[in-house]
TrEMBL record:
Lineage: Bacteria, Pseudomonadati, Pseudomonadota, Alphaproteobacteria, Rhodobacterales
Transmembrane spans: 37-59, 65-87, 108-131
Name of the protein described by the UniProt record: Succinate dehydrogenase cytochrome b556 subunit
Species of origin: Polymorphum gilvum (strain LMG 25793 / CGMCC 1.9160 / SL003B-26A1)
Cofactor annotation: heme
Sequence similarity: Belongs to the cytochrome b560 family.
Keywords: Heme, Iron, Membrane, Metal-binding, Transmembrane, Transmembrane helix
Function: Membrane-anchoring subunit of succinate dehydrogenase (SDH).
Keyword Lyase on entry: no
Amino acid sequence: MSHVDRQGNRPLSPHLQIYKPILTMVMSILHRITGAALYFGTLLLAWWLIAAAAGPAYFDFVNGIYGSILGRLVLFGFTWALVHHMLGGIRHFIWDMGAGFGREAREWLARATIIGSVAVTILLWIVGYMVR
């Protein structure tokens, strides 16, 4: 008969404190965080659209909030979350196609997602200010 551990001294599942954080692990966590942040950003977008439909006075009020330093910082973060989540989705699509599973490819894709999301976000804001 097999020995049963009656004292409950079974090994626990490894936790984040056990694992050494690697770039792909951090990217997975960031992908989830940016996905959750997009819910908040979508509410901001809906509020802006509702304000536009409500009339010029309320629209000016909401634009005043979004035009403040804090408002622009939040909108910049929303833009980054949107771009980062999109590039993370493209990274997952590449994996779904069966490519990019090697260590070097995974690291390259993770770095490209980080660098690309920051660069595209800054580029979008520069273009937005130039068009404005």
